[in-house]
Amino acid sequence: MTRPPDTPDSAQPFVRRDGALWVEGVSLDAVAARYGTPCYVYSRAALEARFRAFDAALAGRDHLVCYAMKANSTLAILDVLARLGAGFDIVSGGELARVLAAGGDAKRVVFSGVGKREEEMRQALAAGILCFNVESASELERLDRVAGEMRLRAPVSFRVNPDVDPKTHPYISTGLKENKFGIAYEDALALYRDAARRPNIAVVGIDCHIGSQITEVAPYLEAVDKVLSLVDRLAAEGMLLHHLDFGGGFGIRYRDENPPEIAAFLAGILARVGERPVKLMFEPGRWLVGNAGLLLTRVEYLKHGVERNFAIVDAAMNDLMRPALYDAWHEIVPVAVRAGGTRHYEIVGPVCESGDFLGRERELALAEGDLVAVMSAGAYGMSMSSNYNTRPRAAEVLVDGAAAHLVRERERVESLFALERRLPG
Length: 425
Ligand code: LLP
Fold this sequence. Notes:
The chain is globular and about 70 Å long. With 425 residues, the chain is an alpha/beta fold. It has helices at 28-35, 44-56, 75-83, 93-101, 118-127, 137-149, 188-196, 217-236, 262-273, 286-289, 322-326, 413-416, and strands at residues 14-17, 20-23, 26-27, 39-43, 63-68, 87-90, 109-111, 131-134, 154-161, 183-184, 201-207, 243-245, 279-282, 293-304, 309-313, 332-334, 343-348, 357-364, 371-374, 395-400, 403-408. It contains twelve helices and 21 strands. The protein binds ligand LLP. Ligand LLP binds next to helix 10.
């Protein structure tokens, strides 16, 4: 590989042997031959190493790591993490159903999101989740009523918006006043008092999440301080919280970012929390899965032009939306190193949009039929994929040592319109 792992505690499962790229004990050539392309390939060892590193950094404190499953909600990924004792951060009834199907424990599930529907609340209450991360006064009102109808008490944490700039891409900033997320900091105390008086609500925690791909500790600590000051004010009024949840957002290396080591990142937070007798929770998504997966794709055509050269591959923006949506940069490497002249390529897919690119201006030696790997694609890759252009979603393979497991079949075209109906007559 051309770059070092992003933190010393990350496993490096993607290695070159005799010029060819392998994931653990399986060559990507073999994966492509067996399962075709485009195909997401994950490393179980990398995933486990990341979870263990995160968990170990919290050792000695009562804690729960709730994987933000929106990053990658494939059952096999959830299963691997559930076996390690992970909790889960969900944002829909669909995610709850998935996590339960994967063997996750409802008692370790927190439910985030600004738009929980009534039936989703019922589903989560019936399953007995750990907590609802409530994001508005209206949501509290609704949850109180729904829980009352079910003769249950809903465990609640308020997601406060600390109004902190996480210094990341504006589309993935969430903790600023202008964002739709969370409860305004100034309104939080009043809402806690209101919740404490409601018969069908049990106030258990507080949470925040200021954004994603955060590579600096300072904004995170600023948010932590603001949350802690609320926690102390609540305690002074006799409202003792069971847990503090600081969300996710821990950045990874895609290119040249230098996020702090996770242990150092978390140590800073632990120091701020000090001796307060509470359980600590986090909701990492990207940090756990991002660098544990890649997107394997094959070059269909090369178009060498006067202005630009294009490598048209069989993966597209519908498979990996991040470059088109955020102008995100993913490293793109050939699976087999080819001797000979490199050129600058636009790596593009077959979708009919100029925004359909996976990488721009990449210097590579390529021939038609070559395999290339789009790296760091484990998070927000498959989970954000679509069927645009009636493209079946990619297959997914989880490598475990020398074994490659097909954990999701490539979609079949017929299934894409199986729920559709033509007009009668
Ligand atoms: N908790 C909450 C409430 C969240 O909204 C998110 C992510 C997370 C945790 C996990 O954040 P992470 O640890 O993965 O940064 N699609 C974008 C990222 C969107 C993040 C949305 N919320 C991307 O591809 O970069």
